[in-house]
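Researcher: Can you fold this with ribose-5-phosphate in place?
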Amino acid sequence: MFKGKTKSQTARVEGNHKMKIILGPSSTELAEKIADLTGFEKVSVASRVFPDGESYVRLENSVMDEHVAIVNTTSKPQDSNLMQLGFLANAAKRNGAKKVTAIVPYLAYARQDRIFLEGENVSIETVAAMLKAAGIDQLVTANIHAETALDKFPFPAKTLTAIPLLAEYFLKKGFTKAFALAPDKGAMYIAQQAQQILGGEAENLEKQRDRHTGQTTQTGVHLKVKGKTVIIFDDIISTGGTIVGAAKILREQGAARIYTACVHGLLVGDAEKRILDAGVEEIVATDSVPSKNSKVTLAPLLSEALKAL
Ligand code: R5P
């Protein structure tokens, strides 16, 4: 049953009625922040998991004739969160929404955006097709692993960068001119974005991954890090292996203090402990994957993007 508008909601709608924000169950806090920053009206979601593990969602406010933005991340449990996102899009369209934008802070399966070994699938292509079938018309995410993954979407999809927000976190702590290190060549653009805010140097290590075992090896040219504060920037920290390897090289080369920042802190298993044990003083992530390491919110970035749509 849809609830009618309250008096205060009506006042907000008159002021800013461009779209409504659907508070997806996996990103409720972030969605609330976005609604507060944009002034867009919120749509609550009732959700639960059936005893057999299937997901259930229901929109609790009207979306009739609205452009809606569903905020729902797809970190662990990835498959359930993806299904919830699809279900919410279907519910929005069935209940009269005229346009559905998906705000997916962390987009699962984006790393399998091409065939690495014969016989594989392209996971993100399947995800994109499923989201289209569910009723999503456009998608916004943050720091997708490779922008080429966006080409697999049959509707407009774009990625934003949260690296300046992460660098500003360190700047506020007084880390002016800190050394920004990318743990591999692919992340060098990330280190360079951080460098623009921090005003120090930026370098990258080299990383090779064995596609069969997933094992990585890193090598570092001589980095000028002796006695310096270094922040290792990456898009994702998953098992922590990449950061542990980079921290080892930094210690060997005499870095004074080591920190790490990523957009998506998946931090699976004992990743956090392994990183801290490797001599990293602090792990900073965004709320694309909500955890105690989510010290930087994506709300301002995503709010501006929504206002500009
Ligand atoms: C891969 O190239 C990504 O940018 C990350 O470096 C990677 O996903 C991190 O994975 P892990 O924490 O398991 O080393």
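Model: Folded with ribose-5-phosphate in place. The CA atoms of residues 247 and 271 lie 13 Å apart.
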